[in-house]
Amino acid sequence: MYYFLSMLSLNDLGVSLSTLPTVLATFCFNYRHVGFDACLVQMFFIHTFSFMESGILLAMSFDRFVAICDPLRYATVLTNSRIMAMGLGILTKSFTTLFPFPFLVKRLPFCKGNVLHHSYCLHPDLMKVACGDIHINNIYGLFVVIFTYGVDSVFILLSYALILRAVLAIASQEQRLKALNTCMSHICAVLAFYVPIIAVSMIHRFWKSAPPVVHVMMSNVYLFVPPLLNPIIYSVKTKEIRRGILKIFLKSQA
To answer: What is the helix, strand, coil percentage profile of the chain, to 5?
Structure first.
């Protein structure tokens, strides 16, 4: 599990580093310009890191499934080499899936203005100011969302359905609560990631008359809440991390 936590931490750092340059420039220095090529690069990395986080959460749900449903084989199923292969698979899948995005955007002319609604570059925002035929972009974007978020979320739900079935089969109530408690950190991380995504999608789909500030606020929540909450979630629920923080705090007080 700790290898997956390391992957999640590095990915959250990648999300923050992808978005913060333009966000800080906008809000702290009132600098509201970004080059087109720089915008495409930022768009690529923001979407890539977001899709990687979905894949990491799926891998963590598999980790919880094996730990609870087949604990005696945990060490043989999730070996270091397999965890490394899963990490490389997530990276490769996200990179190759998102790689066409910048080229699909760059081929388009832009004649509907040059003002984006967010403090960073996203594919849907660029489509709103693009001219020409954007059907290919929209179709590929929908395919990527379903292929990534849709498939990952279905397998996460399936993992927890099997986990819940295994937990309910445990005779001791204390053991059932202990087994469920080992999943709480991951469940909170999944909710922190997927709930803002669902909220943003619902607003875009069903509340088209929403004020621009609502779209800006929800998009910032979607990108910044998971990296903010994940360290807190796992620090509170993981004994080893909690002890390490407490030890550092006591040393600083000495």
So the answer is: 80, 0, 15
Predicted local distance difference test score (pLDDT) of residue 253: 66
Please state the pTM of the whole predicted model.
Answer: 0.86
pLDDT < 70 regions, the chain? 112-113, 204-208, 237-238, 252-254
pLDDT of residue 133: 82
Homologous superfamily assigned to 2-253: Rhodopsin 7-helix transmembrane proteins (1.20.1070.10)
8-state DSSP, 254: -
The SS3 of residue 247 is helix
Question: Any idea what DSSP says for residue 157?
Answer: H
Closest by Cα among 193, 218, 220, 199 to 22: 220
Residue 158 has what pLDDT? 94
d(CA 196, CA 56): 17
**Separation CA 157–CA 4 (nearest Å):** 19
Please count the other Cβ atoms lying within 10 Å of the Cβ belonging to residue 19: 24
State residue 221 phi and psi, 5-degree precision.
-60, -45
Domain range list for the chain: 2-253
